[in-house]
């Protein structure tokens, strides 16, 4: 099993920047990929960015060119650098880990959620 602890987030003006961090502990050697999702009130949770154990990344179209996901394997931490923030980025952001149960089967683990609010 994996434990995910998030930090960062807060209130920022449009055009500003924030960085989210997600520290993983536990059976981290079985993590296939990690990522960030967000969920605004009344909306479904959506993928923002993800990074595999090999370092491959993918992003939602809405954040491409503005957000960067990275990982520090020495600290077992994943980061989400958010630049040029827009009011529509306002949401609760969740760290996610895809934990390998067995070949072809993964389980989702989630962080506690971090509020990001962008004022116009």
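Q: What amino acid sequence fits the structure above?
A:
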């Amino acid at each position: 099993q994996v434990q995910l602890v998030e930090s960062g987030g807060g209130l920022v003006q449009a055009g500003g920047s924030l960085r989210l961090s997600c520290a993983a502990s536990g059976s981290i050697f079985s993590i296939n990929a990690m990522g960030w999702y967000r969920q605004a009130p009344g909306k479904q949770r959506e993928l923002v960015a993800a990074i595999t154990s090999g370092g491959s990344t993918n992003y939602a179209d809405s954040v491409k060119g503005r957000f960067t996901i990275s990982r520090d394997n020495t600290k077992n931490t994943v980061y989400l650098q958010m630049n040029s923030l827009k009011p529509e980025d306002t949401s609760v952001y969740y760290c996610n880990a895809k934990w390998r149960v067995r070949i072809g089967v993964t389980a989702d683990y989630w962080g506690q959620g971090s509020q990001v609010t962008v004022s116009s």
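Q: And what stands out in the fold?
A: The first strand starts at residue 2 and ends at 8.
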